[in-house]
């Protein structure tokens, strides 16, 4: 009857001995040839062909996070008046076939003149590829609704309207989707306070829910915006992001 | 027994396409009686439609390349499985769908003209960003 120790030692002897040191020095650093990522090359080739096919419709094209070994994400930036033609091209053209609509969202950059970045994400199951199409709009510029190309954009555009106030014209039914009926304001804008402007409570005298100005006492919080991590602003903001002009902020 | 006979006589039979559908095939996509003829017709229409785009436009060049390549494969091979393997973009029903989509796209591209660049404007450079 073999003891446990003997069994273990037998197993270890039979297993191939790979020294940890050998694993560490597996790559030969003297002949430092950069390993090309085939997926990244494919993405670059695809973006290049899109830019060549639609030159006047693309204001920027990049691969975000492309230097990571797992590959990056393709991003196309377009002017706000051509979102639907670009989405239609990506969906219907044989070498792109991004037929699956994933989501539409928005981001608020209040320091930009065109503060809302509307983002459409698409997936091509045929070629196993994802792409993002982005536009920048301000509060009053409408964007054409993507519902004529992708039915799935319906509720996502309603959410962007509700949360940011970006209007989608030719949308079949653009109304609020997440906020309360009669709610005023667009909550995901950066200038909308965290606790909002109104709070609701049930009033026994009126026998209904009433809205009152919010009374949550929040003490003054000062934010130190420096982070301990290195910041790479390139790729998330346009290079020539215009600072809000000082004259707009000066009191009359 | 009479009822089953009556049902069989009057229900439309999808099994007339049996030779074109390989199980399991995509639900709801029917290739029709002669998918090769359908494809040839669609590609012919595509090549006609794309003539209204200027010859130098990349879109026209690409569409013509793709369509001619696919049409060549369809013409050469009688066997549908061979066509599907050669093209490797899915089953024949999906190839038909892709041809229909491309045909649908062309009039929009003709109207939109994304290839026209103003004087001095250049297409953007692609950045790989961390």
From TrEMBL, chain A:
One of its GO terms (molecular function) is oxidoreductase activity, acting on NAD(P)H. The keyword Electron transport does not apply. Residues 77-197 form the NADH:ubiquinone oxidoreductase 30kDa subunit domain. Residues 231-252 are annotated as: Disordered. It comes from the Eukaryota. Gene3D superfamilies: NADH:ubiquinone oxidoreductase, 30kDa subunit. This is NADH dehydrogenase [ubiquinone] iron-sulfur protein 3, mitochondrial. Residues 236-252 have a biased composition (Basic and acidic residues). Belongs to the complex I 30 kDa subunit family. Keywords: NAD, Translocase, Transport, Ubiquinone. NCBIfam families: NuoC_fam (TIGR01961), PRK06074.1-5 (NF004733). Pfam families: Complex1_30kDa (PF00329). InterPro entries: NADH_DH_suC, NADH_quin_OxRdtase_su_C/D-like, NADH_UbQ_OxRdtase_30kDa_su, NADH_UbQ_OxRdtase_CS.
TrEMBL record, chain B:
Its main location: mitochondrion. GO terms for cellular component: mitochondrial inner membrane. It holds the Pfam family ETC_C1_NDUFA5. It is found in: Mitochondrion inner membrane. One of its GO terms (biological process) is respiratory electron transport chain. The keyword Electron transport applies. It is a peripheral membrane protein. The keyword Protease does not apply. It comes from the Eukaryota. Keywords: Electron transport, Membrane, Mitochondrion, Mitochondrion inner membrane, Respiratory chain, Transport, Ubiquinone. Transmembrane segments: none annotated. Belongs to the complex I NDUFA5 subunit family. This is NADH dehydrogenase [ubiquinone] 1 alpha subcomplex subunit 5. It comes from Gracilariopsis chorda.
């Amino acid at each position: 009857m073999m003891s446990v120790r003997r069994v273990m030692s037998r197993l270890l002897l039979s297993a191939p001995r790979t020294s940890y040191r050998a694993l560490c020095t597996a790559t030969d650093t003297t002949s430092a040839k950069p390993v090309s990522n085939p997926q990244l090359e494919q993405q670059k080739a695809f973006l290049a062909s899109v830019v060549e096919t639609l030159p006047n419709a693309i204001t920027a094209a990049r691969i975000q996070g492309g230097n990571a070994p797992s590959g990056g994400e393709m991003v196309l930036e377009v002017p706000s008046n051509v979102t639907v033609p670009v989405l239609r091209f990506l969906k219907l053209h044989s070498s792109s076939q991004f037929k699956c609509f994933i989501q539409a969202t928005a981001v608020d950059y209040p320091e930009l003149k065109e503060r809302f970045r509307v983002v459409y994400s698409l997936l091509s199951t045929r070629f196993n590829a994802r792409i993002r199409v982005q536009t920048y709009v301000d509060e009053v510029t409408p964007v054409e609704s993507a519902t004529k190309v992708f039915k799935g954009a319906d509720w996502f555009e309603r959410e962007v309207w509700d949360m940011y106030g970006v209007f989608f014209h030719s949308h079949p039914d653009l109304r609020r989707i997440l906020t309360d009926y009669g709610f005023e304001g667009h909550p995901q804008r950066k200038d909308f306070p965290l606790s909002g402007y109104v709070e609701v409570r049930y009033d026994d005298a009126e026998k209904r829910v009433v809205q009152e100005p919010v009374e949550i006492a929040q003490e003054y919080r000062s934010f130190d915006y420096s982070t301990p991590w290195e910041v790479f602003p390139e790729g998330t903001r346009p290079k020539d992001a215009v600072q809000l002009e000082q004259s707009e902020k000066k009191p009359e | 027994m009479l009822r089953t006979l009556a049902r069989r006589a009057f229900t439309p039979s999808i099994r007339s396409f049996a030779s074109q559908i390989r199980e399991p095939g995509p639900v709801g996509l029917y290739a029709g009686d002669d998918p090769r003829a359908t494809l040839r017709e669609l590609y012919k229409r595509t090549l006609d439609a794309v003539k209204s785009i200027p010859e130098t436009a990349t879109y026209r060049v690409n569409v013509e390349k793709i369509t001619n390549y696919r049409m060549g494969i369809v013409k050469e091979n009688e066997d549908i499985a061979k066509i599907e393997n050669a093209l490797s973009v899915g089953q024949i029903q999906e190839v038909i769908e892709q041809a229909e989509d491309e045909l649908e796209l062309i009039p929009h591209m003709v109207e939109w003209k994304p290839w026209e660049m103003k004087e001095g404007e250049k297409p953007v450079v692609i950045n790989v960003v961390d």
